[in-house]
Amino acid sequence: MSPRSARLARLSRSVTFSACHRLHSKSLSDEENLKLFGKCNNPNGHGHNYKVSPVLPLQIDPVSGMVMNLTDLKGYMQEAIMEPLDHKNLDKDVPYFSEVVSTTENVAVFIWDSLQKLLPQGILYKVEVRETEQNVVVYKGEQTIVK
Fold first, then answer.
1. Is residue 1 part of a domain?
2. Which cofactors go with this protein (predicted)?
3. Of 40, 48, 133, 142, catalytic
4. Angle between helices 70-77 and 104-118 (to 10 degrees)
5. For the domain that residue 53 is a member of, what is the CATH number?
């Protein structure tokens, strides 16, 4: 294969944001919430330093040698992740979470949807959200079909 032939690479960049939240479902009683979420249901909430890494599989441009300009990706991530989420109370400061439980799974969906609005169509492969070193959610935009 010649150096100018199309090659695919997966590009990722990581950001870390700090936010607090309370795991609490309006569909459950206070007792059910406490049983399900335990100490994470604390009425005053608790915080995390979330690490987010979106992955973009793209063709390496034969002229620039890049998949995407990292400065552009940094700007998209600033707008989609850092501005709405960093140093926020997810449940009170982010309208999306007023009706959606602020689990890491739903944080990953929020970030996916936010990035999808900014990135060129169809280039987001996955979003990885690390709530802690032990707790990681990977979301690839999959949806289930409601029957």
1. no
2. Zn(2+)
3. 40
4. 130
5. 3.30.479.10
